[in-house]
């Protein structure tokens, strides 16, 4: 008997997919492997060792990287919190407040950080802060990060909000809930998965940023990416590979978290 | 059907009606003050006179744009001819970004298709695999790629060992290395939107095409590609736009000969050789190109929706 | 929660007084007025877009009225927000809070009204028992069937003891069999609780079987208010006659009028005496006759002569599609009883209209 052809199959697509994943993962995996290299000649394999991880935490550059890591995580936490709060308010306005002046422009404004090329945002922010007499430093990094985190936080929150019918809030009002109670007891819990994914996404995006940070950070202030960049400019050293591998793990943890949250949100809907 | 959220009436329950502006205020304030104003300021600066050692003099002039487009000789007294240096850098950036987009599409479409046609359980695992690099720090990914492909790196060592080549590849500092970096940086951006489009694709259309005597590749060309086109276009935008202004890949993997817009602009604002009005003018030209592309995109989406 | 009754008249639960609703230039309700009595099962019936749901949402407070008053036991509530109105709604898609279990859903309104958690739990369990869901209190809405969700929605709306319960097509999401069972149950619960129900539906059968009174709506206006029997047997206009049940509308000429009686000329020229829905004058009119109120007689006899075009077998009945000489269509229902003769397709038949059952309509 003839076998029915599977209309979803195209010859070679599986191979392309494998190629795609190899391209995406090979550099990361190889760096992860070499971060355990005992030899200090980074290309020769000299046996398995944790020495570069020890070096990251205790070596001569450890204080610099520790401070950079503290800066990075503090800024990412703060920027993600604020941008998520702002994005949540914006999502409520866009999906619940009916028509208002500037609604169409608002959507464009939210997405503007995604549309303006990063290098332009970076230099424009620098020039702006200098012009208005702001001292560049942690504060300017923080502000710039909030701005570009807003669209990333907004994306999952507004997607979730569109999936939550306003009929639940109507039912709550019908059952004597005040507007604030309807928000706190109904809308907020229903949006929680979206808000959490928005926060995680904003956090990772903030942690990831190099270019804008590099311009607005001011002298002497470093985040992890700018510290790594400065170090890499003098050659790729094994401790950088160890740091990279650690950051890779942070990213993987975050994706997994947001993935689990997304699935939980979906099954509950 | 149990538990499915009913469609909203769209009228809102009246709770938030009239409060739209108040709720939007933080976003308006932050993006307005810290992005729109700075970009407008840049637009103004591009028409001002440069101050040596960075900064501007408030003296309106077209000098920055003049320098970008016209060559008036060493002393500025010769009849102007077109200056190709900066146009060349822009052209190289557009070309590199376009090429990266093409390569990402060639690899990304089959990948997205393959993943979207898995059964639901394995599908999310595949998708998860593609998503992880998207979340990994771009700097780390670019550095990793540099480590991999440089002359003393594992790729070169491996090829030497197998005897495919008998000398260093000399990849780093070439346009090809930059191309590899761009492709690698933005590949996930291509896969995800196409995946979303293919996932919504109705396979009854393929069946109808097959029923009407179309072979697999004819179906792909005449039915599937047109139907998932919005996803493809979105993916191309998401790769092309950031590639155009990319800084890390050209800076880390390229050299003087592979200079792209990002580095050109960066140079004007870092260090003593800076020229703020010129950097601002280059930024405005880049921004115009990007907004032009996005405008075309918006228009094509609007046309598709009709 | 005492039902204070001062200005609203005794026994009037809801007084809808000349309610107008406009959306921009579009008018959804053109001055609608009626009273709903305490303990009454009142139905708003009409096709989609007739304004019935809009009216319900005006009573609930989700829509602001553009004009007129809505009085709840005498107090004008038309400008109060929903959470200040002692009315509760059973939503079309139930709108059960997906992140709360059944008990928490039912307790929600009680807690907002300031009940203690203990009293609210007791009351919620009591209402859940009323809708026969006592064992499901700890389930999530998603774990319930459509029929169970519908009963939770009912329990949740009943628990705070509203002065009026609003039901927005609550049966439309259920399948046919279940719907018929729930109808009986709903009516029973309404009698037990003795709360006025305002029930919105587009299903005339639902309206006829459950309601004490029906308001038939179309185009943002109430066309007729009456008991199921009144609106079925004495429709006031062609819309009501056609929307509720099946009917034949014959073009007739009004010859003479005597009070509420009139004599008309039927198609084919025979005279016929009938009741008029409204004062009429000589001129053209429409005669509404239900298909089951037409008797089949031999050709040439009766009031009309027609040709059989088709029959439709319905089990208990057989529907006969026939055409008059002027090509007007007539539908006749005959009982599928032993010995009833079914005329062949193409056969000439005579039709006799039941004298008391025909209504003369002018608009």
TrEMBL record, chain A:
SUPFAM superfamilies: MetI-like (SSF161098). CDD domains: TM_PBP2. The chain crosses the membrane at residues 12-36, 73-95, 107-132, 138-157, 185-207, 240-261. InterPro entries: Bact_Polyamine_Transport (IPR051789), MetI-like (IPR000515), MetI-like_sf (IPR035906). Keywords: Cell inner membrane, Cell membrane, Membrane, Transmembrane, Transmembrane helix, Transport. GO terms for biological process: transmembrane transport. GO terms for cellular component: plasma membrane. The keyword Transport applies. Residues 69-258 form the ABC transmembrane type-1 domain. Belongs to the binding-protein-dependent transport system permease family. CysTW subfamily. Required for the activity of the bacterial periplasmic transport system of putrescine and spermidine. This is Spermidine/putrescine transport system permease protein PotC. It comes from Palleronia aestuarii. The lineage of its organism: Bacteria, Pseudomonadati, Pseudomonadota, Alphaproteobacteria, Rhodobacterales.
Automatic annotation (TrEMBL), chain B:
Signal peptide: none annotated. Residues 90-297 form the ABC transmembrane type-1 domain. It is found in: Cell membrane. It is a multi-pass membrane protein. Keywords: Cell membrane, Membrane, Transmembrane, Transmembrane helix, Transport. The chain crosses the membrane at residues 27-48, 94-115, 127-149, 176-198, 219-241, 276-298. GO terms for biological process: transmembrane transport. GO terms for cellular component: plasma membrane. Pfam families: BPD_transp_1. InterPro entries: MetI-like, MetI-like_sf. Belongs to the binding-protein-dependent transport system permease family. CysTW subfamily. This is Spermidine/putrescine transport system permease protein. It comes from Palleronia aestuarii.
Automatic annotation (TrEMBL), chain C:
Residues 14-244 form the ABC transporter domain. InterPro entries: AAA+_ATPase, ABC_SmlMolc_Importer, ABC_transporter-like_ATP-bd, ABC_transporter-like_CS, Mo/tungstate-bd_C_term_dom, P-loop_NTPase, PotA-like, Transp-assoc_OB_typ2. GO terms for biological process: putrescine transport. Gene3D superfamilies: 2.40.50.100, P-loop containing nucleotide triphosphate hydrolases (3.40.50.300). Part of the ABC transporter complex PotABCD involved in spermidine/putrescine import. Responsible for energy coupling to the transport system. PANTHER family: SPERMIDINE/PUTRESCINE IMPORT ATP-BINDING PROTEIN POTA (PTHR42781), SPERMIDINE_PUTRESCINE IMPORT ATP-BINDING PROTEIN POTA (PTHR42781:SF4). This is Spermidine/putrescine import ATP-binding protein PotA.
């Amino acid at each position: 008997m003839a076998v029915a052809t599977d209309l979803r199959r195209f010859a070679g697509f599986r191979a392309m997919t494998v190629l795609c994943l190899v391209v995406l993962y090979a550099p990361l995996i190889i760096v992860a492997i070499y971060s355990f290299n005992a030899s200090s000649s980074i290309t020769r394999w000299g046996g398995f060792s944790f020495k570069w991880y020890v070096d990251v935490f205790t070596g001569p550059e450890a204080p610099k990287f520790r401070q950079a890591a503290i800066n990075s995580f503090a800024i990412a936490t703060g920027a993600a919190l604020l941008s998520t709060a702002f994005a949540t308010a914006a999502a409520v306005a866009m999906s619940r407040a009916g028509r208002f002046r500037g609604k169409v422009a608002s959507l464009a404004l939210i997405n503007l950080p995604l549309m303006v090329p990063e290098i332009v945002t970076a230099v424009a922010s620098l020039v702006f802060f200098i012009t208005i007499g702001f001292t560049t430093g942690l504060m300017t990094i923080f502000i710039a990060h909030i701005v570009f985190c807003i669209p990333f936080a907004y994306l999952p929150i507004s997607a979730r909000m569109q999936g939550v019918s306003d009929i639940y809030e109507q039912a709550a009002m019908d059952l004597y809930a005040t507007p604030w109670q309807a928000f706190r007891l109904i809308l907020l819990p229903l949006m929680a998965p979206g808000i959490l994914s928005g926060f995680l996404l904003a956090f990772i995006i903030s942690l990831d940023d190099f270019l804008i940070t590099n311009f607005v950070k001011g002298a002497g202030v470093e985040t992890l990416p700018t510290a790594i960049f400065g170090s890499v400019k003098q050659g790729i050293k094994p401790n950088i590979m160890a740091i990279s591998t650690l950051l890779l793990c942070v990213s993987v943890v975050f994706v997994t978290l947001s993935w689990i949250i997304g699935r939980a949100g979906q099954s509950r809907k | 059907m149990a538990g499915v959220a009913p469609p909203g009436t769209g009228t809102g329950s009246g709770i938030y009606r009239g409060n739209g502006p108040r709720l939007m205020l933080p976003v308006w304030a932050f993006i307005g003050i810290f992005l729109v104003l700075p970009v407008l300021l840049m637009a103004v600066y591009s028409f001002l006179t440069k101050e040596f050692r960075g900064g501007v003099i408030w003296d309106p002039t077209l000098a920055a744009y003049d320098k970008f487009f016209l060559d008036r000789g060493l002393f500025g007294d010769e009849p102007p001819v077109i200056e190709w240096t900066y146009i060349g850098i822009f052209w190289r950036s557009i070309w590199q970004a376009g090429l990266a987009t093409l390569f990402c599409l060639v690899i990304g479409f089959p990948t997205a298709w393959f993943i979207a046609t898995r059964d639901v359980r394995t599908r999310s695992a595949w998708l998860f695999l593609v998503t992880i690099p998207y979340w990994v720090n771009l700097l780390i990914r670019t550095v990793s790629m540099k480590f991999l492909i440089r002359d003393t790196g594992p790729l070169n060592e491996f090829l030497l060992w197998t005897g495919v080549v008998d000398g260093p590849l000399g990849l780093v500092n070439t346009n090809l290395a930059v191309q590899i970096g761009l492709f690698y940086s933005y590949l996930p951006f291509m896969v995800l939107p196409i995946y979303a489009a293919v996932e919504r694709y109705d396979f009854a259309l393929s069946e109808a095409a097959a029923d009407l005597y179309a072979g697999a590749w004819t179906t792909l060309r005449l039915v599937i590609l047109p139907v998932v086109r919005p996803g493809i276009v979105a993916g191309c935008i998401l790769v092309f736009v950031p590639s155009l202004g990319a800084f890390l890949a050209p800076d880390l993997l390229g050299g003087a000969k592979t200079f792209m817009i990002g580095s050109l602009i960066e140079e004007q604002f870092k260090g003593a050789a800076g020229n703020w009005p010129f950097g601002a003018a280059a930024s405005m030209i880049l921004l115009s190109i990007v907004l032009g592309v996005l405008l075309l995109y918006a228009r094509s989406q609007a046309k598709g929706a009709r | 929660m005492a039902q204070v009754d001062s200005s609203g008249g005794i026994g009037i639960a809801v007084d809808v007084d000349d309610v107008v609703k406009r959306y921009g230039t579009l008018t959804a309700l053109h001055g609608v007025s009626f009273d709903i009595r305490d303990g009454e099962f009142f139905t708003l019936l009409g096709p989609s877009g007739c304004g019935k749901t809009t009216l319900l949402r005006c009573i609930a407070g989700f829509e602001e009225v553009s004009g007129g008053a809505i009085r709840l036991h005498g107090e004008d509530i038309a400008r109060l927000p929903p959470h200040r109105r002692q009315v509760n709604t059973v939503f079309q898609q139930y709108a059960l809070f997906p992140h709360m279990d059944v008990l928490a859903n039912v307790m929600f309104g009680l807690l907002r009204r300031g009940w203690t958690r203990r009293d609210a739990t007791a009351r919620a369990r009591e209402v859940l028992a009323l809708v026969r869901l006592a064992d499901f209190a700890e389930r999530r809405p998603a774990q319930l069937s459509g029929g169970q969700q519908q009963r939770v929605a009912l329990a949740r709306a009943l628990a705070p003891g509203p002065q009026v319960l609003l039901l927005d097509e609550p049966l439309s999401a259920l399948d046919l069999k279940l719907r018929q069972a729930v109808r009986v149950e709903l009516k029973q619960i309404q009698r037990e609780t003795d709360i006025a129900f305002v029930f919105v539906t587009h299903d005339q059968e639902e309206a006829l079987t459950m309601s004490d009174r029906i308001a038939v709506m179309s185009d943002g206006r109430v066309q007729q208010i009456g008991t199921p029997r009144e609106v079925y047997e004495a429709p006031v206009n062609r819309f009501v006659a056609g929307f509720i049940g099946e009917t034949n509308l014959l073009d007739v000429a009004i010859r003479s009028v005597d009070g509420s009686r009139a004599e008309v000329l039927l198609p084919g020229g025979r005279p016929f005496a009938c009741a008029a829905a409204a004062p009429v004058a000589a001129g053209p009119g429409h005669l509404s006759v239900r298909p089951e109120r037409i008797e089949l007689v031999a050709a040439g006899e009766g009031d009309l002569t027609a040709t059989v075009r088709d029959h439709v077998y319905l089990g208990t009945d057989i529907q006969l599609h026939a055409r008059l000489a002027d090509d007007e269509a007539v539908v006749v229902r005959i009982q599928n009883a032993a010995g009833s003769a079914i005329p062949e397709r193409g056969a000439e038949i005579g039709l006799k209209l039941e004298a008391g059952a025909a209504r003369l309509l002018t608009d």
